[in-house]
Design a protein that fits this description.
Helix content is 7%, strand content 48%. It has 1 helix and 5 strands, in the order βββαββ.
Length: 75
């Protein structure tokens, strides 16, 4: 069966639902719709979260239209 989604890890800087940590959440892009998963990693620093993101992904900086808590995304 072919994979019909794209996995994206988005890193957030102390968002309102995780105000004490940086958090990266895995999202699935399915037919152009972003669906959050329950997969997350947290840490006290941006580096500590980046170190937990799966190897082999590439970092994309936040876009000006992104939510203010978004730091970057990894594909």
């Amino acid at each position: 069966m072919a994979k019909n989604y794209l996995s994206v890890w988005t890193v957030f800087d102390h968002p309102t639902d995780y105000p004490d940590v940086f958090i990266a959440r895995k999202w699935l892009l399915v037919s152009g719709v972003a669906v959050p998963t329950h997969e997350t990693v947290t840490g006290p620093t941006l580096k500590s979260v980046r170190d937990k993101i799966p190897a082999g992904l590439h970092r994309f900086p936040r876009s000006p239209e992104d939510d203010v808590y978004i730091v970057e995304s990894w594909l």
